[in-house]
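Researcher: Quick test of sequence recovery. Tokens follow.
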């Protein structure tokens, strides 16, 4: 039979077509088979996709990862960071949950006079929530924790145990005189005065006069930090401190303790948060724990050898027995004073070059 012609061109010959039918019935391997509906669908999808090139021998195409949302990724990273913090510093993990600012972690205790002033901070105004913002004091310890007490050893008439007790009582005086909330609000510092030798007549006379009629030579501010509640209020419950106690043997075998401490008080006008500033007081006290066999003294008390202090943002003019921060227009009174960095603890107290009776002007607060 001759070849026939179909719509797609020349068809197979009669012999080829007959052989095809026989092989199809016999199930020959090479016989063409009609593709299934599934196969046709796959072929159609593959034709629609761009050619990806030949796949490598035994190559592996990983499954496409699912898209992660932003909160999932951020949460995963935060979890990893928290785990690392807990592993390396479990104590700081507690601070994180307590809302502690890591930038405000206290500095190491001061054990010697620093050689320079602390570095400058970015200029930021204090707020009611962050009263030490923009100040080196933000990284200082709070209250008594910022006053370093050295390890005790035997001195003069005192054993090491007695020296340790005297150092602790010396720090107690600083707390009672410059950190006690009642004293800061203008109350009479009875507990602090109780630690001073009642037989030291010159000091007792000064104290008797200072609280009755304060003046330049008999000012309670020489030993105590006080603010007048009707004019000034403390902001928050924290006073920042930095300083140390040192000791040596004094006259007649006495234990002589020197305290050099800076106190930073955040304050605002009474009844207002519109203006917040920091009154900064640095005190140096020299105390003598005398041998009762050689000096008339009451056991458990000390005599005051000397006292001096520097203050900025504490007010100028006639003494009132209180620090008077220069709020509002009062701040103009400080413009002519010698500039002082109140955070510079590298120089001795009261020796910063200001003229006698001149009010210092803080370069920063």
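Model:
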């Amino acid at each position: 039979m001759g070849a026939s012609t179909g719509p797609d061109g020349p068809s197979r010959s009669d012999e080829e077509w007959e052989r095809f039918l026989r092989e199809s019935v016999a199930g020959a391997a090479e016989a063409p088979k009609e593709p299934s509906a599934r196969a046709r669908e796959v072929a159609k999808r593959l034709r629609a996709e761009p050619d990806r090139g030949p796949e490598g021998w035994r190559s592996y195409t990983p499954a496409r990862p699912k898209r992660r949302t932003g909160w999932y990724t951020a949460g995963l990273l935060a979890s990893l960071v928290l785990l690392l913090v807990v592993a390396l510093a479990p104590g700081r993990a507690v601070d994180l949950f307590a809302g502690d600012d890591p930038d405000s972690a206290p500095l190491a205790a001061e054990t010697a006079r620093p050689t320079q002033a602390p570095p400058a901070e970015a200029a930021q105004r204090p707020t009611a929530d962050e009263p030490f913002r923009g100040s080196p004091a933000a990284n200082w310890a709070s209250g008594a924790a910022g006053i370093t007490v050295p390890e005790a050893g035997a001195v003069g008439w005192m054993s090491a145990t007695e020296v340790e007790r005297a150092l602790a009582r010396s720090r107690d005086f600083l707390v009672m005189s410059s950190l006690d909330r009642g004293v800061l609000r203008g109350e009479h510092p009875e507990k602090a005065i109780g630690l001073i030798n009642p037989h030291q007549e010159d000091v007792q006379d000064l104290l008797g006069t200072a609280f009755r009629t304060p003046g330049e030579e008999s000012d309670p501010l020489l030993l105590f930090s006080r603010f007048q509640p009707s004019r000034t209020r403390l902001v928050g419950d924290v006073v920042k401190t930095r300083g140390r106690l040192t000791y040596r043997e004094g006259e007649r075998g006495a234990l002589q303790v020197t305290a050099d401490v800076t106190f930073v008080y955040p304050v605002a006008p009474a009844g207002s948060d519109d203006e917040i500033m920091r009154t900064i007081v640095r005190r140096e006290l020299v105390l003598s724990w005398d041998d009762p066999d050689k000096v008339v003294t009451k056991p458990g008390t000390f005599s005051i050898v000397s006292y001096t202090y520097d203050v900025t943002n504490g007010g100028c003019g006639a003494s009132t027995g209180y620090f008077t921060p220069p709020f509002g227009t009062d701040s103009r009174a400080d413009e002519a004073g010698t500039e002082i960095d109140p955070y510079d603890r590298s120089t001795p107290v009261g020796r910063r070059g200001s003229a006698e009776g001149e009010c210092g002007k803080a370069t920063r607060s």
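The chain is about 25% helix and 15% strand.
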